[in-house]
Design brief:
The complex is a heterodimer of chains A (387) and B (107). Chain A is an alpha+beta fold and 387 residues long. Chain A has 14 helices and twelve strands. In chain A, the strands form four sheets. In chain A, strands 1-2-10-7-3 form a five-stranded mixed β-sheet, covered by helices on one side. In chain A, helix 6 runs antiparallel to helix 10 and helix 7 packs across helix 10. In chain B, strand 1 and strand 2 form a beta hairpin.
Chain lengths: 387, 107
């Protein structure tokens, strides 16, 4: 009897064999353990992403939602409220408006590399990716220096879930509460003394003459911090892992950094850190012979859609010449990741600088410790031998 | 399925069957049509899925909402009365056979 438990450590470690069975044999599968339907084929996921009226985000988008978060963030509201909220922040994340961050992002990469010079082995996650992403986020949101390590540790814990209880555990909730308080302090300062930064603008913004609710400002800020640190860092670790495991691809991008953007796209397809997100049905539907009811939760398994042979030829092959357009590494549709442009730019710059110093590297651990998370997938630690 | 003819910047034509309900952007991106970037992934946040809709078909499509109209100001190719962002236009049966032309540049 096939089962799919997104809380199981086996799925954290390697979801892809499960995904194949889901796609081939159970394209619309009821997961008892997750208490939701799982959609695993590319076409079904795209259809859901294009139909927010049916596949609503208003009851949460994380597989294991944080308390009281649904309904107060970009990812957990539906249009038209979502579009109005997004309109307030998206200008800051548009490609053309990011050019001014070029220097700061490159500097963050160079700074983060400094302590690694001369080392033969280090943990890519802790020693590079997390240091770099925290520096970038603090710069983008204008956060005061000093709290980097504390913020990063909480951001990573917030997205995890407990494999035994299939919920957020006390440590995850405590991290979320800490982050909410941290964000609340920043917001209070910005309201008192507004600057040009995004949080100030968002805190004071109005929709139809009304200020956003405190909860919206707070949870949206909290989500930006979580995504900026955890999602970016998680993806960077997956990209490093792919390049460590595929030496020929790495040598090509090292020799010709102009190939980096296509390699990044292929990693977003091959094993994106954003593996699974959630929706809730607003009406009864029939799909692949199953009757789904209004109120049922649906898992959109992006990581599976990205390996669907119905869409991508030889999907289990990592191929930087593939140009995998339309991949689901950032989700898609109305709720596609807000940070696509800055993520692409930051990862590219980080690896341009990283490869200047470390053109050769390989993986040390045979088995990686995977983050326990029903939504995201990345290693907690990635030891690289360099040189 | 709705058959859409995409005209690529080099003049090449691709006839694609797009599932009803998918955006014209998604139809192009998942079928390897040239001339679209769709940097933001379909959230109306980047203006890099700019297209020109065949004039006769324009009337069959709901007009651009405020966010699309505002984002259209950011397109880099010539903006014409027929300009739309392909991520905001859904394939419906009424659009069977229309021409969707892609500009020479998206960014």
């Amino acid at each position: 009897m096939f089962s799919f438990d997104p809380y199981s450590p086996a799925v954290d470690a390697d979801p892809f064999p499960f995904y194949r069975t889901l796609r081939d044999e159970h394209p619309c599968f009821w997961s008892q353990e997750a208490n939701m339907w799982v959609l695993s084929r590319y076409a079904d996921i795209v259809t859901a992403l294009n139909d927010w009226q049916t596949y609503s985000s208003a009851r949460g988008n994380l597989m294991t939602e944080l308390p009281n978060r649904a309904g107060a963030t970009l990812g957990t509201t539906d249009p038209p409220r979502h579009d109005r909220l997004r309109g307030l922040v998206q200008h800051a994340f548009m490609k053309r408006n990011l050019a001014s961050l070029d220097g700061a992002i490159r500097e963050a990469a160079i700074d983060a590399l400094q302590p690694l010079l001369g080392q033969r082995q280090f943990d890519f996650v802790e020693d590079f990716a997390s240091k770099f992403t925290v520096k970038v986020l603090f710069r983008v949101l204008g956060l005061p220096p000093g709290d980097e390590v504390a913020v990063r540790d909480r951001a990573v814990l917030m997205v995890q879930s407990d494999p035994a209880t299939r919920q957020k555990g006390p440590a995850h909730i405590a991290a979320f509460n800490w982050m909410s308080e941290y964000a609340s302090g920043i917001i209070a300062e910005r309201v008192k003394q507004p600057g040009e930064d995004l949080i100030s603008q968002f805190s004071l913004a109005e929709i139809d003459g009304e200020r956003l609710s405190e909860r919206e400002v707070l949870l949206t800020t909290t989500t930006l911090i979580m995504a900026g640190i955890e999602s970016l860092g998680g993806f960077m670790s997956m990209f490093a892992l792919n390049l460590a495991d595929h030496a020929e691809a790495r040598r090509r991008v090292v020799a010709d950094p102009a190939l980096l953007p296509e390699a990044i796209e292929e990693s977003l397809r091959f094993n994106t850190s954003a593996q699974r997100f959630r929706r809730c049905l607003t009406r009864d539907i029939e799909l692949h012979g199953q009757q789904l009811k209004e109120g049922d939760f649906i898992c959109l398994a992006y990581g599976s859609g990205n390996r669907d042979e119905r869409q991508f030829a030889n999907p289990d092959v990592y191929d930087i010449d593939r140009k995998p357009r339309g991949h689901l590494g950032f989700g898609g549709g109305t709720h596609a990741c807000l940070g696509t442009a800055i993520a692409r730019m930051a990862v590219k710059m980080a690896f341009e600088e990283f490869h200047r110093v470390f053109p050769e590297y390989s993986r040390v651990q045979e088995q990686l410790p995977w983050m326990p998370s029903s939504t995201f997938r990345s290693p907690l630690r990635l030891d690289l031998a360099v040189g | 399925m709705v058959m859409i003819t995409y005209v690529e910047p080099n003049g090449g034509r691709q006839e694609i069957d797009v599932p009803e309900g998918w955006s014209l952007m998604q139809g192009a991106m998942s079928n390897g049509v040239d001339g679209m970037e769709a940097e933001c992934g379909g959230s109306c946040a980047c203006a890099t899925c700019h297209c020109y809709i065949d004039e006769a078909a324009l009337a069959l499509i709901p007009p651009a909402a405020d966010n699309e109209a505002a984002m259209l100001e950011n397109v880099v190719a010539e903006r014409r009365p027929t300009s739309r962002l392909a991520c905001q236009v859904k394939a419906t049966a009424a659009l069977e056979g229309i021409l969707v032309e892609l500009p020479a540049a998206q960014s």
